[in-house]
Amino acid sequence: MTSVDEPVRPDRRLPDAARTRSDILEAATGEFARAGYDGARVEEIAARTRTTKRMIYYYFGGKKQLFAAVLERAYGALHGVEELLDVGHLDPVTAVRRLAEVTFDHHERHPDLVRLVGIENIHGGEHLAAARRFGRIDAPGLATLREILDAGRESGVFTADVDAVDLHAMISAFCFYRVAGRHTFGALFDRDLTAPARRDHYRAMLADMVIAYLKG
Amino acid sequence: MTSVDEPVRPDRRLPDAARTRSDILEAATGEFARAGYDGARVEEIAARTRTTKRMIYYYFGGKKQLFAAVLERAYGALHGVEELLDVGHLDPVTAVRRLAEVTFDHHERHPDLVRLVGIENIHGGEHLAAARRFGRIDAPGLATLREILDAGRESGVFTADVDAVDLHAMISAFCFYRVAGRHTFGALFDRDLTAPARRDHYRAMLADMVIAYLKG
DNA sequence: GTCTATAGATAGATAGAC
DNA sequence: GTCTATCTATCTATAGAC
Question: Which of A211, B70, B137, B180 pairs with A61 at a CA distance of 20 to 30 A?
Fold first, then answer.
């Protein structure tokens, strides 16, 4: 029970139930990302929390629903970043560069999200579909991209007639593959796509590519 | 036993042992691609062959080694395609377009390979590393790309100073994501990246992007 | 080389007390 | 809401006959 006269300690900012839920989701994110859906162990998730395996079933119902909740939370974090992005005052070229960089940085900072997305695709997207039945998961970044492309076409700096969804796919592809494909790529070509020393290089490469494409 | 006076039936072109091995690999490719490494069932793989579960252990030693063999075979097929590629007589722009298209087509035609690569990355590339300890897996397409880039820079059509490995990563990223990320992308943006009606569009988009980037 | 039967380990899920 | 103990199913792997 949280009462008003109880001092708010750092790990007590949430009511107990919400905090337990949040703890479980945090631990589950790591475990699912580590081992995949079938490789993940509910036992191991419980061991990473202050609570027990029984509570996971109590709060989420089962492994499947837990994974769906983990996914939903991960996407929510990504889209939160996109919402904060304010590029309305920038010229189209700079704006699209910023958008590509923000997408790049988020993948860079959250390899777990990338892994979860990869895992979810192995399983045909079934959990995400389930999650979407309850709350919509929207990507605000797409609307921003649409505006940038319109502005660029109007001012004549972008000659290619590109669809916003397609361009978003292109940007996502590069960001995703750099993280999700790094092990096989590294093994075959002896190059670590995620080496810190090459991070700025790849971020610039992505933005240059997108802009070159838009300028036709 | 295959003897000289026995008629060679279509499914008897290989000696029995090799044929059984090949059958198992074929079935295992499908099952691993369907369910992931931990989700795949050795029982199910056996059921898809003319042989039994016991033989899988007899031939491959275990599930892990079987998956490694499946990967090795899948990469072999990809690199076989790259070897057949003859672009020496083409101008650099056309040559790089051809290379991008061949890579695109191979991913399009072999979604199972794409899924296997995704699965292998979930598991940190350990099986591929194991496979490489025995036989090298080389990507001949990379040498071709290097030659094209050199020729393009010399003739002055390519102004960007791009590394062949990096450009290969960029091309692979797009081809990979279109297949490996289609479920989550489709769920979020309501667009099927692998719809047959859009295939030519995306193939051209990839080539256009690469060429625009190389022309600076 | 090929089969049947089974060992041995471990997972997800739950019962039931408090 | 939280714990311990356990059920039930299932999976990889192997023994052993032929």
Answer: B180
